[in-house]
Q: What sequence folds into this?
C-alpha cells in the first residue's frame, strides 16, 4: 500500500517536473525572492521592519496573492487534463489501489507545489546568513508552516474540483470561480463596518474566517501587528475569540483541515464514480 | 473465467451498454468488434473496473472494481491510443513492473523482440516516441507479466509487418494460458487472431460466434511474387514487408506472418494489375 502510494507520488513528481506550468511556477517564486533582493528590500525600513523580516513579510503577501490561483488552476488542469487525454484509462488499468493512486497523486503534487515556494524562502535565508543579515527564525518557521498549510488547503480544494468536474474546461472554470469567490469575500475591514451596523460581530467574523484567504492574510498581519489594529473592530472579536497565540494556531489548523477535508471528499467522489 | 452478466451502462440519458451477458473461458481469443459508439471501449473499461455499471462483471469470480489490485494484477491492457505520458520510458517500465510484481528486464526483453531497444530511449519522454514505438512498449508492458487476461484495443494498428509478426508469435506463446480480448472496428484486422467473434451494436451483442481456428498465431507463409515490370511504388510497399528482390525488381520473395495474411493481401491488391504470378505456401516450422 505505502509502496504503491510512493510510486504514484514519484510518478506525479516526475510528470510535474517536466511540465511547463512547473517551470513557470518555480520561476515566479524564485524570481520574486531574487527581485526583492535586487530592489534592496533588506535595506529598507517600513513599519519598523528591516532586513529579512521585511523581505519575508513582502514575500508572504505576494505568495498569498499568487499561490492559491496557481495551485488551483494547475491542479485541476493537469488532473482533469490527464483524465481527458486517456492517462487515467491506462495508468488505472495497472494494479494500483484507488486510495494509493489518489493520495499518492496529492502527496507528489504537494511536494512539487510546496518545494519551490519553500526553497525560494530558504534561499533568501541562506543568502541573508551569508551577508550577515539577521534571520528572524521564529517568523521564518511560522511563515513556512503558513505556506505549507496554504498549499495543502488549495491542493485539497483543487483535487475536489478535479474529482467533480469531468472536463478540463469545466474544472478550470470552477477553480477560477472558487478563487474569485474567496477573493470577493476578502475584506475584514468591510466586515468591520458591517459590525458597526446591525450584523452580529461574531457572525460577520465567523463568515470572514471561513475564507482561508482571509485566515492567511490575517495570520500574516498578526506577525507584525499582533493587536491587528489595521483591521478595526473585527480585531476585537478575533482576539476575544482566539487570543494572539490561539489565532496563530487556528490559522494553521483550519486551512489544513479544510484542505484535508476537501481532498477526502474528492477521494470519496472519485472512488464512487467513473475513473477515466 | 470472465463473466459479464446483464451489464448496462448509461451516460446521462444515453444507454451505451444495454444488458450485455457473456461468458469467456480460459484460452479463448475473442474479437470484440463494432462501429464507433457500439460500446467496445465502455465494455473494456467495465472489465478493467474503471466504470461503474449495472449488472455484474467478474474475473475468476472477483469484481475488478472491489478487488482492483488482485484482479488487475492478472490483466494486461494495451489501449488504442497511447496515453500522453511525460515520464521517461525507463520510469514507465519501472513503475509498471513494480506495481505488477514483475522484472523490468522481462519488459526490456519483449520490447527488444518487437524491435524496440529500450536502453536507447530509456530517458526519452514516452510522449515523444513514435506511434509504433509507443505501441511496442505498451505491448511489452502488457505481456511482460503473468497476465491471465490480455485486453488489447487495436494492438497491431501502428506496428510494421516485422513487429506484427513478432507480436503474433508472442500471442501464440501465451494462447494456452491466457484469455485474449482484442477490440477492433473491423473484423478483418483481427479475424485471423481469434477463435470467437463478439459484435456489439448500440450497446448490445448482435453476434457471438465461434470461428475456424485454422490459422496458427505463430505460422508463417513463404511468398513469391513476380511483377511484369519494375515499379518503384510497389518496390517500396513490398520492402516494408521485408521482401527481398531476386532480380531487377521483378521477382520478390519473403515471409508473411499467418495472421497477417489478410492485411498482406490488402496491400498486394493495390498492385494486382502489375502482378503476373503470386504464390503463398505455409512454411514448415
A:
Amino acid at each position: 500500500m505505502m509502496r504503491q502510494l510512493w510510486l504514484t507520488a514519484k510518478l506525479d513528481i516526475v510528470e510535474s517536473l517536466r511540465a511547463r506550468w512547473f517551470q513557470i511556477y518555480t520561476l515566479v517564486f524564485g524570481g520574486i525572492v531574487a527581485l526583492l533582493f535586487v530592489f534592496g528590500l533588506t535595506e529598507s525600513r517600513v513599519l519598523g521592519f528591516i532586513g529579512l523580516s521585511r523581505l519575508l513579510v513582502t514575500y508572504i503577501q505576494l505568495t498569498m496573492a499568487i499561490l492559491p490561483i496557481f495551485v488551483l488552476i494547475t491542479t485541476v488542469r493537469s488532473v482533469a487534463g490527464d483524465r481527458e487525454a486517456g492517462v487515467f484509462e491506462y495508468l488505472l488499468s495497472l494494479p494500483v489501489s484507488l486510495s494509493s493512486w489518489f493520495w499518492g497523486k496529492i502527496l507528489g503534487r504537494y511536494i512539487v507545489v510546496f518545494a519551490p515556494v519553500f526553497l525560494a524562502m530558504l534561499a533568501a535565508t541562506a543568502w541573508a546568513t551569508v551577508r550577515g543579515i539577521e534571520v528572524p527564525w521564529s517568523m521564518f518557521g511560522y511563515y513556512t508552516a503558513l505556506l505549507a498549510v496554504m498549499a495543502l488547503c488549495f491542493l485539497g480544494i483543487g483535487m475536489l474540483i478535479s474529482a467533480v468536474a469531468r472536463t478540463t474546461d469545466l474544472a478550470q472554470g470552477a477553480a477560477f470561480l472558487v478563487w474569485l469567490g474567496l477573493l470577493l469575500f476578502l475584506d475584514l475591514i468591510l466586515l468591520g463596518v458591517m459590525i458597526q451596523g446591525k450584523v452580529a460581530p461574531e457572525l460577520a467574523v465567523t463568515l470572514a474566517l471561513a475564507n482561508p484567504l482571509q485566515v492567511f492574510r490575517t495570520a500574516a498581519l498578526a506577525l507584525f501587528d499582533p493587536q491587528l489594529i489595521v483591521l478595526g473592530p473585527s480585531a476585537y472579536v478575533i482576539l476575544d475569540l482566539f487570543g494572539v497565540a490561539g489565532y496563530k494556531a487556528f490559522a494553521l489548523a483550519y486551512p489544513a483541515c479544510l484542505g484535508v477535508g476537501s481532498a477526502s471528499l474528492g477521494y470519496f467522489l472519485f472512488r464512487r464514480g467513473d475513473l477515466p | 473465467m470472465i463473466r459479464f452478466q446483464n451489464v448496462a451502462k448509461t451516460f446521462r440519458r444515453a444507454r451505451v451498454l444495454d444488458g450485455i451477458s457473456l461468458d469467456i473461458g480460459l484460452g479463448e481469443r475473442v474479437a470484440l468488434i463494432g462501429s464507433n459508439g457500439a460500446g467496445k471501449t465502455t465494455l473494456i473499461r467495465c472489465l478493467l473496473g474503471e466504470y461503474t455499471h449495472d449488472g455484474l462483471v467478474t474475473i475468476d469470480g472477483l469484481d475488478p472494481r472491489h478487488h482492483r489490485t488482485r484482479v488487475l494484477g492478472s490483466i494486461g491492457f494495451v489501449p488504442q491510443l497511447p496515453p500522453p505520458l511525460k515520464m521517461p520510458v525507463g520510469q514507465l517500465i519501472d513503475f509498471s513492473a513494480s506495481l505488477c510484481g514483475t522484472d523490468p528486464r522481462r519488459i526490456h526483453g519483449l520490447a527488444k523482440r518487437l524491435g524496440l531497444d529500450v536502453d536507447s530511449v530509456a530517458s526519452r519522454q514516452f510522449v515523444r516516441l513514435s506511434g509504433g514505438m509507443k505501441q511496442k512498449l505498451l505491448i511489452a508492458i502488457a505481456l511482460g507479466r503473468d497476465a491471465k487476461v490480455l485486453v488489447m484495443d487495436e494492438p497491431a494498428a501502428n506496428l510494421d509487418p516485422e513487429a506484427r509478426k513478432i507480436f503474433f508469435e508472442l500471442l501464440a506463446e501465451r494462447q494456452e494460458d491466457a484469455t485474449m480480448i482484442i477490440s477492433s472496428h473491423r473484423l478483418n484486422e483481427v479475424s485471423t487472431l481469434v477463435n470467437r467473434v463478439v459484435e456489439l451494436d448500440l450497446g448490445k451483442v448482435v453476434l457471438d460466434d465461434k470461428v475456424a481456428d485454422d490459422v496458427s498465431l505463430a505460422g508463417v507463409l513463404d511468398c513469391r511474387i513476380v511483377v511484369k515490370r519494375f515499379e518503384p511504388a510497389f518496390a517500396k510497399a513490398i520492402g516494408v514487408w521485408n521482401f527481398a528482390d531476386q532480380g531487377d525488381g521483378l521477382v520478390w520473395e519473403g515471409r508473411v506472418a499467418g495472421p497477417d495474411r489478410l492485411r498482406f493481401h490488402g496491400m498486394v491488391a493495390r498492385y494486382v494489375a502489375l502482378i503476373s504470378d503470386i504464390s503463398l505456401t505455409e512454411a514448415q516450422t
Remarks:
- Residues 30 and 181 of chain B are 5 Å apart (CA to CA).
- Chain B touches chain A through 32 residues (CB under 8 Å).
